[in-house]
UniProtKB/TrEMBL annotation:
<dbReference type="InterPro" id="IPR016181">
    <property type="entry name" value="Acyl_CoA_acyltransferase"/>
</dbReference>
<dbReference type="Pfam" id="PF13302">
    <property type="entry name" value="Acetyltransf_3"/>
</dbReference>
<dbReference type="GO" id="GO:0016747">
    <property type="term" value="F:acyltransferase activity, transferring groups other than amino-acyl groups"/>
</dbReference>
<keyword id="KW-0808">Transferase</keyword>
<protein>
    <submittedName>
        <fullName>Acetyltransferase</fullName>
    </submittedName>
</protein>
<dbReference type="InterPro" id="IPR050832">
    <property type="entry name" value="Bact_Acetyltransf"/>
</dbReference>
<keyword id="KW-0012">Acyltransferase</keyword>
<feature type="domain" description="N-acetyltransferase">
    <location>
        <begin position="1"/>
        <end position="151"/>
    </location>
</feature>
<dbReference type="InterPro" id="IPR000182">
    <property type="entry name" value="GNAT_dom"/>
</dbReference>
Length: 153
């Protein structure tokens, strides 16, 4: 599994994954997003020093992993968000996507900790993050916050 920086040319693909009903079901914002709004969001993400958005690839694009710097947390804390492409679900790729994203985050930034906000009913995501070494169950509405200190931080 490899990750590469996302680009504006990925907008339609990323939007199709974002607007997938299963993706929206577990998101903080469940509304369908219009292309113009998504392109504007993507341009802002790509221009931000506090966000990293990667496309995961294994014989083509299979998902995304995004890291957002958390300003109201200890220095070096990032929040992760992961999406597995609908056509790539059920193939056991989520762990590899997450691991590749974490490696790239550590390569680029002095990251010390990663947070994952996971919907309390999303058993697959809870299991993914637990298997990857994330712990904790701090409640934040219908989302639980799991954390992982990064090695060599």
């Amino acid at each position: 599994m490899t990750v590469r920086e996302a680009g504006v040319g990925d907008a339609e693909l990323l939007l199709s994954w974002r607007n997938d009903p299963e993706t929206r079901r577990w998101s903080r914002t469940t509304d369908v997003v219009a292309l113009a709004d998504h392109v504007r969001w993507l341009e802002n993400v790509l221009a931000s020093a506090d966000r990293l958005l990667f496309v995961a690839e294994k014989d083509g694009p299979v998902g995304t992993v995004r890291f957002d710097l958390v300003s109201d947390a200890p220095e070096g804390t990032w929040e992760v968000s992961i999406t597995v492409a609908p056509e790539s679900r059920g193939k056991g790729l989520a762990g590899a996507i997450l691991a590749a994203g974490e490696r790239e985050l550590r390569r680029r930034e002095p990251a010390r900790c990663v947070l994952a906000s996971v919907h309390e009913d999303n058993a697959a995501s809870v299991a993914l993050f637990r298997k990857a070494g994330y712990t904790g169950t701090e409640a934040a509405g219908p989302f639980r916050v799991l954390t992982k200190p990064l090695e060599n931080a």
